[in-house]
């Protein structure tokens, strides 16, 4: 099985960085995230970046409709956007949000984990690992403005940020609900949750596959602030001011001090974790459970 799948190679083959943004933003100048004028949005088909270099941050909008499921292409585009912002000294922070109404992210794309071959599973899992590592350890301040329901891998992405603002809508539950699908959150999903909400809350949440509505998410510390839906972005921006006022090197080193041991656990066992995932997801019983879950999602419409 080819485990040495390079995300950078994948990146190069998938898309040219900074393709023109399709859809409403294409080719026109939009007001920048922080209100500055004349700054051009950039991005890729599934990720729209609204930069405000004068204010030192960019808003990264996920737009992989209908539910921002984290397909291989989408993961790759998120990584490219992050890399681009990280390598530009004008940017110190990102606000991560969704462009899909009512949905932050439905988590990992079930179609990537169903009915595919082991090489694909390995490639996909490596990209999932990469996304977590890069967001979790980013030297930028990353704040998520969670404006919709946020399950499993999507929740992991938000938990990897430095601060979370959630829109106050009872439908916008978030959590690591893997057990409801008959699958298991890997140790680094678990560690990220434990680091955020503590061991006891994580233990209960993971076993029961709990999705927390806003008031409960706030109460257990899964999010830092709950605000009216129309204020999610402005609240994230206001919060950012406090983070950007701290000397950058001191904040970055402190972030690394807090997070590196957790990331190192995966870095040390990365290939074994991929092999474990491939073995697990390839099992007939797991494939069947995923198909049943997908079928249920489709049936709820009829
Ligand atoms: C050893 C380690 C082993 C394994 C670890 C694997 C870890 C996995 C972590 C994950 O992230 S697994 C994914 C978990 N996600 C979910 O459980 C969320 C599932 N989705 C939903 O609950 C709902 O779709 C929603 C609440 C997010 C949105 O509801 P609604 O607005 O009513 O949309 P629909 O349900 O009608 O969905 C529209 C469309 O999208 C498809 N879809 C939904 N979620 C996914 C997904 N995660 N991956 C792929 N596709 C998804 C859904 O089937 C619909 O498709 P149609 O073809 O019927 O339009």
Automatic annotation (TrEMBL):
Keywords of the record, alphabetical order, are: Acetylation, Fatty acid metabolism, Isomerase, Lipid metabolism, Mitochondrion, Transit peptide
* Reaction it catalyzes: (3Z)-dodecenoyl-CoA = (2E)-dodecenoyl-CoA; (3Z)-octenoyl-CoA = (2E)-octenoyl-CoA; (3Z)-decenoyl-CoA = (2E)-decenoyl-CoA; (3Z)-hexenoyl-CoA = (2E)-hexenoyl-CoA
Q: Which PANTHER family match?
A: ENOYL-COA DELTA ISOMERASE 1, MITOCHONDRIAL, ENOYL-COA HYDRATASE-RELATED
Q: Name one GO molecular function term.
A: delta(3)-delta(2)-enoyl-CoA isomerase activity
Which species does the entry assign this protein to?
A: Enhydra lutris kenyoni (northern sea otter)
Protein role: Key enzyme of fatty acid beta-oxidation. Able to isomerize both 3-cis (3Z) and 3-trans (3E) double bonds into the 2-trans (2E) form in a range of enoyl-CoA species, with a preference for (3Z)-enoyl-CoAs over (3E)-enoyl-CoAs. The catalytic efficiency of this enzyme is not affected by the fatty acyl chain length.
Pathway(s) served: Lipid metabolism; fatty acid beta-oxidation
Biological process, per Gene Ontology: fatty acid beta-oxidation
Q: How does it assemble?
A: Homotrimer.
Q: What is its main location?
A: mitochondrion
Cellular location(s): Mitochondrion matrix
Family per UniProt? Belongs to the enoyl-CoA hydratase/isomerase family.
The record's GO CC annotations read: mitochondrial matrix
Q: Does the keyword Acetylation apply?
A: yes
- A family per Pfam: ECH_1
- Look up keyword Lipid metabolism and say if it applies: yes
**Which Enzyme Commission number(s) are on file for it?**
5.3.3.8
This chain's protein is named Enoyl-CoA delta isomerase 1, mitochondrial
